[in-house]
């Protein structure tokens, strides 16, 4: 299943910008803490009585979170065969993921199937084959922003869940700094990889409309963006490029628009602590039932 890829995922400078964001925000750290609290019991329930377990990561990037979850799953079911499928269109990121798996002693027993394609291409391939692979657990972490039709994506992948399975969606929370920034400045920001911003609140609304059952968890987080307000700061410029999804925040907008965005960031998206400006980048997790 490695043919006809439509280029969709993170490539080029965006890969570096995303890695920088992950380090600066501590986003994966808060996710790991959340997974440690919630997933052992979820996995125990999902896997009870099953003779094998199938895991699917969608838009997994370099797979740090998928590897972490597979470790938790293995520790719950050390003798049950577990297989992993990964759908990730960014060649750079999926190659990094593959390299990390070869170096991870505890993942050597897990056979991985790599799908270096977009969700849309994966869906076409699955439908073309007729006999779809089904999964006990699947995750979509911080990736639904890039879908042309995220509702159709959720519907399709949800249809691949096995009995007692769960689809885990982790996404920027409604009312977080991201939601405020991207809804107020949608016209200026939704011009590149994200053409229509969706928040955790939008996803919740659609899950309700589809009549799907789910649990919702909140994963609070903040990121220090004080440097965005320091004239000439390289760190601040990198943060602003990532937060506005532009190659250069400085070049993309007029001085007036930049001032308005900075004003909103400072006054509506941050709290102040010990002289630092902390941007609310909280997340929401939905655990959607099969
Ligand atoms: C914000 S990153 C999140 C990566 C990873 N889940 C994480 O949280 O570290 C978004 C990911 O979605 C992937 N992506 C973008 N468009 C996609 C598509 N159409 N189908 C599947 N994945 C896509 C990108 O390549 C990237 O890996």
TrEMBL record:
PROSITE patterns: SAM_HNMT. GO terms for biological process: methylation. Pfam families: Methyltransf_23 (PF13489). Keywords: Methyltransferase, S-adenosyl-L-methionine, Transferase. The keyword ATP-binding does not apply. The keyword Transferase applies. One of its GO terms (molecular function) is methyltransferase activity. InterPro entries: HHMT-like, SAM-dependent_MTases_sf. Monomer. This is Histamine N-methyltransferase. It comes from Coilia grayii (Gray's grenadier anchovy).
């Amino acid at each position: 299943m490695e043919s006809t890829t439509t280029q969709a995922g993170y490539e080029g400078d965006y890969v570096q910008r995303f890695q920088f964001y992950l380090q600066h925000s501590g986003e994966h750290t808060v996710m790991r803490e959340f997974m440690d609290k919630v997933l052992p019991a979820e996995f125990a329930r999902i896997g009870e009585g099953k003779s094998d377990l199938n895991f699917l990561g969608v838009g997994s990037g370099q797979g740090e979170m998928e590897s972490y979850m597979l470790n938790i799953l293995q520790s719950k079911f050390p003798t049950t065969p577990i297989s992993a499928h990964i759908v990730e269109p960014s060649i750079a990121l999926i190659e990094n993921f593959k390299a990390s798996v070869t170096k991870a002693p505890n993942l050597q027993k897990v056979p991985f199937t790599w799908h270096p394609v977009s969700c849309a291409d994966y869906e076409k391939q699955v439908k073309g084959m007729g006999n779809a692979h089904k999964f006990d657990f699947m995750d979509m972490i911080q990736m639904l922003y890039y879908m042309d039709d995220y509702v159709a994506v959720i519907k399709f992948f949800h249809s691949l869940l096995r009995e007692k399975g769960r689809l885990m969606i982790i996404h920027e929370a409604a009312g977080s700094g991201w939601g405020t920034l991207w809804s107020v400045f949608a016209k200026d920001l939704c011009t590149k990889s994200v053409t229509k911003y969706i928040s955790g609140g939008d996803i919740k609304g659609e899950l309700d409309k589809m009549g799907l059952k789910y649990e919702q968890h909140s994963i609070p987080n903040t990121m220090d963006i004080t440097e965005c307000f320091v004239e000439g700061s390289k760190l601040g410029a990198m943060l602003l490029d990532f937060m506005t999804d532009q190659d250069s925040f400085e070049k993309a907008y007029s001085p007036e628009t930049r001032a308005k965005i900075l004003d909103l960031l400072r006054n509506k998206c941050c709290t102040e602590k010990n002289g630092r400006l902390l941007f609310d980048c909280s997340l929401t997790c939905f655990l959607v039932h099969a």
